[in-house]
Amino acid sequence: MTEKPKLLLALETSCDETSAAVIENGRIIRSNVISSQIAIHQLYGGVVPEIASRKHLENVLEVVEMALVEAGVDKKDLDCLAVTYGPGLVGALLVGVSLAKSLAYALKIPLVPVHHLLGHMYANLLSHPDVEFPLICTVVSGGHTSIIYWEDHGKMSILGQTRDDAAGEAFDKVARVLGLGYPGGPEIEKAALVGAENIKFPRAYLEADSYDFSFSGLKSSVINYLHKNKQNGQDIVVEDVARSFQEALMEVLVEKTLRAAKEKKVRTVALAGGVASNQALRLRMKERLEPEGIQLIFPEPVLCTDNAAMIGAAAYYLAGQGKVAGLDLNAVPSIPIHG
């Protein structure tokens, strides 16, 4: 397939959201149904893979049907199927991949496999259809933190990525030790709003020319601070710790993104992924980029989380490049991003 599909159905089941969307001409969201499992996984303080897979199995057919009804589309009207095939939880991915292959076979339409992070990047094009390439895209999610030079559709290169904990993962782990809820990002952000004292936590910039990230040391520093204060009988102000942790993490994200944008001489930086909905990150990034004449864009909040609309947006361009899969497509839990 080298023609771009007019109407496609996309599936996303990489973690704990079951989502299906109908996308028209790559930009128009006819429907974007998301069934979240947050309430279930909150009981365990994080996503339990086996439970996530089981819930996807229970929900996916209903979610697909809801997406078609909401879009006012019959299955026979679809030109293409799209699905997240990795990275993610292998059991969760297999639910979406298996259903997508079955539907593609039954409807005799092409199947487009989409990299989950590429979907997050393309969420920006749904919110900002007139954005121009090249640009820097900083992907900040629960499982990934990367700076990507995005030259055009099908042409990109990774400048840096996390060597250990992703930013969202660090948020969740620190929220857990602070006794805050799951997911940790929104809880840390909420607590940080009323934090006052600045606690000195480390900023890991790594080598001078590196765009890579490392947040495990920051996470360990927060845990050590809490243990030390508890042992010494000193009060711990959760809001101050949350504020100081968030500031330390975001400073590195922002400064490396700015340096990449200046080095590549781009006029636009895009944020993508769940952490892209963090208001403090958006504000700090904007404050550093705008004086340099660099525009900041980001998707609307519902498109920052895992959703099928972003997968459909990416699939539209992949289909036009002839990047379709056979019925032997499999889930791949860990795979580098590619255009």
If you had to describe this structure to a student in words, what would you say it looks like?
Strand 7 and strand 8 (155-161) form a beta hairpin. The chain has two domains: 7-121 and 304-320, 2-Layer Sandwich (Nucleotidyltransferase, domain 5), CATH 3.30.420; 129-301, Nucleotidyltransferase, domain 5 (2-Layer Sandwich), CATH 3.30.420. The strands form two sheets. Strands 3-2-1-4-5 form a five-stranded mixed β-sheet, sandwiched between helices. The chain is an alpha/beta fold and 339 residues long. It is built from eleven helices and ten strands. Helix 8 runs parallel beside helix 9.
**Structural class, from secondary structure content?**
alpha/beta
**Average of per-residue pLDDT values:** 95
Biggest sheet features: 5 strands, mixed
**Rg from C-alpha positions?**
20 Å
Which residues form runs of ≥5 with pLDDT under 50? Answer: none
Beta-strand share of residues: 15-25%
What number of structural domains do the residues give? 2
Q: From the 3D coordinates, which CATH architecture of the largest domain would you assign?
A: 2-Layer Sandwich
